[in-house]
Design brief:
Elements: H1 8-14, H2 37-46, H3 53-65, H4 69-82, H5 87-99, H6 109-126, H7 130-141, H8 149-161, H9 168-184, H10 188-198, E1 211-212, H11 218-226, E2 240-241
Antiparallel strand pairs: 1-2
Amino acid sequence: MITTRVPWILTVVLALGVSLAVASVAYAGDRPLMRDLELEALQEAVRWPNADVQTVVALAGRFVATRRDEEAYAYFQQRGKSQPDRPLFLALEGFFQARSAGQVFLLRRPAWVSQAIAKLDRAVTLDPGLPRYFRGLVQAEIPARFRRAEAAVRDLEWVLQNKERFPPGLRRSASRGLARAYTTLGRAVDGKAALERSGYSSLDPDLPVFVTDGSVTPRTVFASARRASSSLPLRFTSPRATTSATWRSC
């Protein structure tokens, strides 16, 4: 299922740590007018056969940083059709579909989000690793009326129970997602403890939400893609936070 032909556990360890709180796209006026060469380089690299997971997750983070959720949704939808054996593409299609719910007509939003969750469910069935992490984040952040908070707790607690398989950035955002889900369920004490573990000061959606355990630049992305099938560990630079976003009701 994973085109690098390595166990999903190893794939997740190689992946960038990423915290991507589910949010709707910002207004078009917030988007940059200049070309984003880093984004373009990452998009091109992920179009290669067998693009490694590090590069795919870096691209997802760049889409978040530049507030291009609708573009990301279309991009990963196309990648999923081109490589249906990559569950991560299907998971990211669902992830960005949920993020872009704010741009959908109000009466269509519940069905839109339900479709996004269904895609994440299918991705997890195919690969119960990194897609489960993204599904947990989505379920934690969507409104309570979708009744997915308990499912979010199961997914994100599973991530933390298997913490040796996930980089620190992923674990931090999983804890923050748990804090959100616990709060939705009225478990205030558990929510406070999870938030403290995450290192975030609050659940304020305007706080930086994309945190990496390393960085990928246009100069390194193509080299990392060529190393996709290598057994050598990848080395990253120090963590950084790159963007923030706000959830609008769906």
